[in-house]
């Protein structure tokens, strides 16, 4: 049984080719402390997924400590897990006019604050960015 608020292993974007294509061809939406890059990619060996592939990244320049980077990535994953229902309000296959593309999203922490935000701030930011992505 899969819960609606789960983040499965298959949803995480790990392969080099889709990541490089995402950053090369993707559109970007900025928030206060997060930026998302998204694109609908048509890969040869990709099977259709009813959910987008997700990438979470925190730069070493932004957060020097590995413990801090991991904490921020955990909070981003948790916030996305709760807010991914925003994406269900639209058809993934109809994104940017492609019927068979795989939607890929990268969440990048920009860290424009001295302290890292809390979970509720991440949830609000991700909800706003996903809604901005849907409208664009």
TrEMBL record:
InterPro entries: Ribosomal_Su5_D2-typ_SF (IPR020568), Ribsml_uS5_D2-typ_fold_subgr (IPR014721), RNase_P (IPR000100), RNase_P_CS (IPR020539). It holds the Pfam family Ribonuclease_P. The keyword Glycoprotein does not apply. Keywords: Endonuclease, Hydrolase, Nuclease, RNA-binding, tRNA processing. Its EC number is 3.1.26.5. The keyword Transmembrane helix does not apply. PROSITE patterns: RIBONUCLEASE_P. It catalyses: Endonucleolytic cleavage of RNA, removing 5'-extranucleotides from tRNA precursor. RNaseP catalyzes the removal of the 5'-leader sequence from pre-tRNA to produce the mature 5'-terminus. It can also cleave other RNA substrates such as 4.5S RNA. The protein component plays an auxiliary but essential role in vivo by binding to the 5'-leader sequence and broadening the substrate specificity of the ribozyme. Consists of a catalytic RNA component (M1 or rnpB) and a protein subunit. Belongs to the RnpA family. This is Ribonuclease P protein component. It comes from Pelodictyon phaeoclathratiforme (strain DSM 5477 / BU-1). The gene is rnpA.
């Amino acid at each position: 049984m899969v819960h609606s608020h789960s983040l499965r292993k298959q949803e995480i974007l790990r392969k080099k080719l889709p990541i490089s294509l995402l950053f090369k061809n993707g559109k970007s939406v900025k928030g206060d402390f997060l930026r998302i890059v998204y694109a609908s990619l048509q890969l040869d060996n990709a099977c259709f997924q009813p959910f987008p592939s997700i990438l979470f990244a925190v730069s070493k320049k932004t957060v020097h400590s590995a413990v801090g980077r991991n904490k921020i990535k955990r909070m981003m994953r948790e916030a996305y897990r709760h807010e991914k229902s925003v994406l269900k309000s639209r058809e993934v296959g109809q994104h940017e006019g492609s019927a068979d593309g795989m939607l890929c999203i990268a969440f990048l922490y920009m860290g424009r604050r001295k302290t890292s935000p809390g979970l509720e701030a991440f949830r609000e930011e991700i909800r706003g960015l996903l809604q901005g992505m849907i409208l664009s």
